[in-house]
Amino acid sequence: MTYSDRLKRHSGNEWRIEPFGRMRVPVVLYADEQTIRSMDDKVYEQAANVAKLPGIVRASFAMPDAHWGYGFPIGGVAAFDAESGGVISAGGVGFDISCGVRSLVTELSLDDISGRREKLADMLAREIPAGLGITGKIHLSMSEMDEVLAGGAQWAMEKGYGLQDDLRRTEEDGRMAGARPSFVSERAKRRQLKEVGTLGSGNHYLEVQKVVEVFDIEKARVFGLKRDAIVVSIHCGSRGLGHQIGTDFLPLMVRSAAIAGIELPEKELACAHIDSDIGRRYFGAMNAGINCALANRQVLTHLVRKVFGRIFPESNLRLLYDVSHNTCKVETHKVGGRDKRLYVHRKGATRAFGPGEVTVPEDLRKAGQPVLVGGTMGTASYILAGTAEGMSLAFGSCCHGAGRAMSRHKARKKWNGRGVVHRLASRNIIIRSRSMRGVAEEAPGAYKDVATVVEATEKAQLAVKVAKLEPVICVKG
User: Fold this and answer.
1) Residue 132: which of 193, 195, 184, 206 has the closest Cα?
2) Residue-level pLDDT at 8
3) Which of 16, 62, 76, 283 could potentially form a cystine with 29 if both were Cys, beta carbons 3.0 to 4.6 Å apart?
4) How many domains does the chain fold into?
5) Structure confidence by residue, pLDDT tens digits, 63-73
């Protein structure tokens, strides 16, 4: 019997695979029927393998944008209890530690920028370092790198890259506690010495967007969003440093699991008990990787503000929120009617805390945490808000984007980068990229329909729609 055969609809947009074999908990997937049926069976298998890991709590979850990944499915969420022998897994965080989205609201409308869009696109492409292996203008020493890994966005702000108010609107107030730079290898640090303040490649982007639809007027007011307003979104992570942390710890976790007697369904699920030496070391290094990503997005914010300030002095870019979607965080959630301290892995999934949660900035708390869901360079993105229901359903988690529907290799065979750029230009979307190969790999058709993903997310009560954004300018590596 295949995993697809075991998949049963539990409610409208909730599907389950009940435990069998070595599964300790069920798999719970959130999606509409068309999306769930189009998922590769490998997604079900990977989610079921996660359900076999020690100390997992409640379920192994998959969001509507879930697709096959490395060990954990991308779009996967799993929480582990240290008191029950729970584990921490590099595969459950991913190699791009703390990849996330940061959105800035402006006082500008589409009409305000219409006559200077080309100039804005050119200047952003020139001033924002983007591309594979690209370096930025900030060159750090090893001791300064340690300061970044300990300080995150707070380090960047103290160096003059941003505003004090930015920290309040950043997850963890801009600095992840528990970071241990000494647990990050020298090789990982050296990879990052010239990469702070760079966008990277792949699906990372900087996008100038317009608000085309508002779904919840009151939440939009709290978030500072209105129809036709210009928003700037930055999607990137910890660059080479985060990748190297994953590369360094994966083989260590494979050996640690074997010594601890943890039977791994596949090597990529390599993990260590949370309270083991390897578990503690990875957690400290990963938190340092989160700080690297927070600092990176903060510096990029500073560069974006400088560009807008030159062309539109009245732009006043204010940070709406910055949230990561490749992390493991210690959070308190209700389990069996009582509070439990859990290690919540979100890989390609966004924290989506509901109204009243104390970790949400006070001036946003009534509406719930902003959830920033990226689309593609030719489709919409969405701003959602977390819900109280989502807190109890999936540990306050929801989708992070559209989710790939096609491999990069297949996308390159199907689309030509220059052709994609020309087609988008005919729709008044300006693309600036150093790599036409990268544009082909990230063609809009290579992804799922983000509107369908968001609709399923809302119907599952994981988050609610606040606003829909469409791209005006997209800068990619």
Assistant:
1) 195
2) 94
3) 62
4) 1
5) 999 999 989 99
For residue 430, being part of any structural domain is answered with no
Report, as an integer, the average pLDDT of 135-161: 97
**DSSP assignment, residue 445?**
G
Q: Can you give the CATH number for the domain in which 299 is found?
A: 3.90.1860.10
Phi/psi at 347 (nearest 5 deg)? -115, 105
SS3 breakdown of the chain: % helix, strand, coil, rounded to 5?
Answer: 40, 25, 35
Only one residue has tokens 């969405």, namely: 382
Q: Mean of the per-residue pLDDT values for the chain?
A: 96
For residue 435, is it within any domain?
no
State the average pLDDT over residues 230-258: 97
pTM over the 0.90 mark: yes
Query: Is residue 431 domain-resident?
Result: no
Which entry of 204, 235, 325, 400 is annotated as an active-site residue?
Answer: 400
Give pLDDT tens digits for 273-307. 999 999 999 999 999 999 999 999 999 999 999 99
Q: For residue 102, give every residue at least 6 positions away whose Cβ sits within 8 Å of its Cβ, in sequence order, or none.
A: 170, 233, 234, 297, 300, 301, 319, 321, 322, 372
From CA 264, how far away is CA 356, in angstroms rounded? 39
